[in-house]
Amino acid sequence: MDPLLDFDHIEMITDGDKSFLKQLVEIYKEDCEKRLVSIKQAIESQNASELYREAHTFKGASSNLGAIQATKLSANLESLGRDDSFDACNSIFVKLEESFKHTVIELEKLLQQ
Fold it and tell me: Which of 12, 21, 32, 51 has the most neighbouring CB atoms within 10 Å?
């Protein structure tokens, strides 16, 4: 399995500025929690265009912050939305929720260092 975070990327985008990192983490957490709700609703209603859009946005936010696992999992959901395929969505979504939860925990630990 891929690592949760790319610490070199985080260092590069924040230049070691903990207050900036804190802002990024807060925005990421708030935005992606909403996106997870929207992704789940899109899967439940089998709304492919909504799944694609929300997963794409989640992927971008995760990539910007160096959240490797969350980026790849949301890319998988994005592809399924684009292909109007819902077969594997539930299992990938569960993995994305877990990855996001652990990513936030690791980011918060990083803020404490």
Answer: 51
Query: Taking the domains of the chain in order of start, what are their residue ranges?
Result: 7-112
Tell me the average pLDDT across 69-87.
96
Q: For residue 78, what pLDDT is reported?
A: 97
Instruction: Give me the architecture of the 7-112 domain, per CATH.
Output: Up-down Bundle (1.20)
Phi, psi torsion values for 2, nearest 5 degrees: -70, 155
Distance CA 44, CA 26 (A): 27
- Please state, in angstroms and rounded to a whole number, the distance separating the CA atoms of residues 80 and 66: 22
Residue 13, both tokens: 């985008």
Show the CA angle centred on residue 26, arms to residues 2 and 29, nearest 5°: 50
Query: What is the distance between the alpha carbons of residues 15 and 75, in angstroms, rounded to a whole number?
Result: 27
